[in-house]
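Revision sheet: structure tokens.
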Amino acid sequence: MKIQKYILTILGLLLLVPTISFSQVKKIKYESTQLSDHAYIITRTGSSATRRSNMGVIIGEKGLVLINPLFKGDEAPQFMKALQKISKMPIKYVINSNWDNYNTAANWYFKDKDVVIISHENVVYHRNIYTQFLFKDTFSLDIGTESIIAYRSMGHSFGHINIHLKNANTTFMADSYRSQWMTIEGPFGLEGHFNGINMALEMGNQHTKYIPGNTTGKIISNREDLIHEKEWRSSFSNRVFALKKQGKSNKEILRDATIVGIFKQYDLYQHITDEIADWVINPLFYDEKAKEAILSPSQLEKYVGTYRLKDKSDVEIFIENGQLFSKSIGQFYLKLVPTSDTHFLPYMQRSNMYQIFELDAKNKVLGFTLAHGGATLKYTKNK
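Predicted:
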């Protein structure tokens, strides 16, 4: 792949210049945008000017609240310098909008400081995450200058939340809405994606400012932008299914004039060259397979239970709303979509990878095998 060749070239250049440290090569730009007298956006631009990420800063009566501080340890001095241009007050709270390492890496920097880290309860199922205060559906925080409401969006991932600032009339959408490209729809499909957008629209009004997690052009979106996102994604989904019925492959779908026309509504399209199918097409079919329900809830019962593997946290498999889920602290939280009584699709973007159950002669579940994190894991079901 082109991207692999590019990475190898960069690595080769770095090896030829051993005197240059990573921190010297890494150039980070921070840009601040004021939302109100107490709320700001810090936009981070890293190696590419086309992909920028938004963080939030709220100045409270006794300290600061940070929304998604996107940095790792070596970048902390740069971020703190940018933050002090807004306020020199101490940081009191950090709120994670999502569970991926990009959104939670800064948590380790705050681990031994007098900072409360707030996340959705499902973040504990992702790897290498440190957090403190967990909530299930909604969480509210009054810091004097601002009333903050965080709520599960049901879009993008199991651990995703939107964060609304009542006084600043602003909602930080993180990965539930990206202004420059199609965000991953999440384990609950377009319905879940639209749920997050609808909740944001219902909580706001015509003047609400919506802050996407990632942007290329403008930093602040409005109500019409969110409505357009719903329209574009619906049109895209309908067109993809129509082309698939005609026998078109993913590559052929990506070349369709209507599809390309929808893609061009997003600023980032001209910069994307690889793996678009994995990002935006495969999840649609994953969701459709989930709706087929080829195994009934009663048929799914035999998979329910606790599974073990030495030196790994236990896996709990359970049924919720007629569907099968698999979760393990520090490892994963997956929706399992059956294609047979042994093969289940755990990853929405990978249509050729399965969680495979082993059954005995009496059709009893003995365990399963799953490729995850670069390893093949083989779990045994507890008796």
